[in-house]
Amino acid sequence: KAGVTQTPRYLIKTRGQQVTLSCSPISGHRSVSWYQQTPGQGLQFLFEYFSETQRNKGNFPGRFSGRQFSNSRSEMNVSTLELGDSALYLCASSWDRGGYTFGSGTRLTVV
Amino acid sequence: DQQVKQNSPSLSVQEGRISILNCDYTNSMFDYFLWYKKYPAEGPTFLISISSIKDKNEDGRFTVFLNKSAKHLSLHIVPSQPGDSAVYFCAASDQSGGSNYKLTFGKGTLLTVNP
Fold first, then answer.
1. CA B87 to chain centre
2. Strand-strand pairing, A106-110 and A10-13
3. Looking at residue A41, what is its pLDDT?
4. What is the pLDDT of residue A21?
5. Cβ separation of A43 and B32 shorter than 8 Å?
6. Residues B36/B45, Cβ–Cβ less than 8 Å
7. Which residues on chain B are in Cβ contact (under 8 Å) with A41?
8. What's the CA angle centered on B40, arms A101 and A23, to 5 degrees?
9. Which of A2, A41, A74, A107 is the most exposed place for a label (fewest CB within 10 A)?
């Protein structure tokens, strides 16, 4: 079966712009989580959605938001981009507590 | 406050020998632990997990040990192969609440297996 698909793979944006990243989970998975990976901080939890509801949220500013659609696909939005937002953004889907499968990520560069 | 710590940023071992990657945690509510392997430009790949009701879990060449009293877990790879060279992340979650899918990750250990 298809894995977790994230689009686009690479993005270059300018400071102050906004960006939307997309994640299509594995079929049947209802939980979608987002993580930010940076060289200094490792993988940090952004938020988790289940059945279109945000269930958990990490310690990120309100510029970071997300949503989940009825087909479990999820989008993440970052507004007013800052240089420090440059990172690899990873999406993971799960059908239970242990089955986390990650996508290949979206590499965002803010210039 | 870093709740999951991987104190060794890198580890180098010879092919065929044992690789031991360590992870410490501070949150006593963590009850489920996972190891992921990550290659550059790819997402993390799940390797093995362990619940806090166990102290050992084995899957082929990979074994994870959990010492709850020390809040310490380790991943053993035997024998190590050059293809195992990657960054290894330890992750933990508190699943006692019933619906917590949040993973807390360590910063990773770069394993290099030399031929």
1. 10
2. parallel
3. 79
4. 98
5. no
6. yes
7. 107
8. 40
9. A2
Residue from B85, B64, B3 nearest A42 by CA: B3
Q: Which two tokens stand for residue A105?
A: 């990520």
Looking at the DSSP bridge assignments, the partners of residue B21 are B75
Per-residue DSSP letter, A65: E
pLDDT exceeding 90 applies to what percent of chain B? 85
Assess A98–B contact: CB distance below 8 Å, yes or no.
yes
- CB contact under 8 Å between A102 and B107, yes or no, is no
Question: Which among A43, A56, A105 has CB closest to B101?
Answer: A56
Residue B20 contacts residue B76 (beta carbons within 8 Å)? yes
Cis bond upstream, residue A8 (ω within 30): yes
How far is the C-alpha of B79 from the C-alpha of A109, rounded, in Å? 38
Q: Is A102 on the interface with B (CB under 8 A)?
A: yes
Q: Which of A51, A60, A10, A59 is nearest to A32 (CA)?
A: A51
Helix, strand, or coil (residue B12)? strand
Mean pLDDT of A95-111: 87
pLDDT for A27-80, tens place per residue? Answer: 988 899 999 999 877 899 999 999 899 988 999 999 999 999 999 999 999 999
Summarised one tens digit per residue, pLDDT across range B18-38 is: 999 999 999 999 999 999 999
| Cβ neighbours of A27 (radius 10 Å) | 11
